[in-house]
Amino acid sequence: MKGITVTLYQKTATSSVDAFGHPVYTETPVNVSNVLVAPVETGGDPMFTETDLKSRKAAYTLALPKGDAHVWENCKVSFFGKNFRVIGMPTEGIEHLIPLSWNKKVIVEAIE
Fold first, then answer.
1. d(Cα 63, Cα 29) in Å, to the nearest integer?
2. What residues have CB less than 8 Å from 55, skipping those under 6 apart?
3. Considering 22, 54, 108, 109, which has the largest number of Cβ atoms within 10 A of its Cβ?
4. Element containing residue 108 per DSSP (H, E)
């Protein structure tokens, strides 16, 4: 089994702040290979409560390869020619106790 390559847009804080005093970020594209992509089952993922999903539509679950050290939280991701945003935080299992090549997962929603 082999995953696809997805583009993760890593956020890096600049030295600037916006009008509200929040840091301004730049997004740098990074290719991450061997990512498994699966549609989210109806009803969403158990890691989210009903309240969490009311304003968000989970589209796919991404299984991330073992050893991946990228920060995925609230980042943009591109695959299948479309853009997505990570919902919530990645969930991670104990690497040596999980078979195959993946031990983390994130949920993404479609964005324009």
1. 19
2. none
3. 108
4. strand 102-111
